[in-house]
Give the backbone structure.
Amino acid sequence: MSPTPARACPACGHQRARFAFASAGFVHVRCVRCDTLFVAELPPPDQVEATYLAPDYHSTAEGQEQRMRSEADARARVLRKFGCRDVLEIGCGPGHFLDAVRELGMRVEGVDRARTAAAARARGHTIHDCWLQDLAPVAARFDAVAMWEVIEHVPDPKAMLISARQWLRPGGFLALSTPSSSGIPARALGARFPMVCPPDHLALFSRRGLTALLAAARFDPVRWTSFSGLGREQLRRGFQRFGLGSSLPGRALARGLAVAAELPVQLMDRAGLGSAFEVYAVAARD
Ligand SMILES: [Zn+2]
């Protein structure tokens, strides 16, 4: 297929991309160099901003609370193992990760304009109600900057990572997660991959693209894993949603398939082909 006119690749900066599919009125293209999938044309900035400021943005889906908290605990433990004492989280939402970090005895602050961040503030967390680029310069710098599921939302992820560097001590850690366009779920589902949800998500990074993005912002990855967050319950719901329906036999079949799929999903994650990446990277010294 012929190249489609598009903005430059938000991951590697390459100028040529090919048509992938259209979803919710947004044409998606794939970078011909790094294979990152992204919306060809950015929505207007006020539409992007409005997404974050919607009352229910970041609110945790029912039944997800426990899974999100255990994920946050595991991530906080990684940063403690790296010797981090203070952490800045960009896009903290209701504050699962802030709680996890604080409970391990580290200092933590959040940045988020979403209304759901009020819940974290009510539990005594320091939350900066601004965009990252407007964060007032302070003397303090952090051992780690975390951004879980953030870079896929922003029009210019490279500028955001460079901005994050300014809040790190030399040799500090960047911790991030983001959906993967290299994994089996993205490849198999195409436009039906649940992480394809413009204008909320503007780019889904390939492994190669994310590697290029980190290098451009001068971060060296030290730990890189793939995960899907798909336990038996999530798989069962997925099978029902993707065609089996809620009839009695449909539900029974979905339950059976979920049990059967659990091990293959674990193997897929271990092979680096899951639905998302989790990366820890060190800021190169200036
Ligand atoms: Zn690219």
User: Anything to note?
Assistant: The first strand starts at residue 3 and ends at 4. The chain has nine helices and twelve strands. Residues 9, 11-12, 14, 31, 33-34, 36, 209 surround zinc ion (CB under 6 Å). The chain has a mean pLDDT of 88.
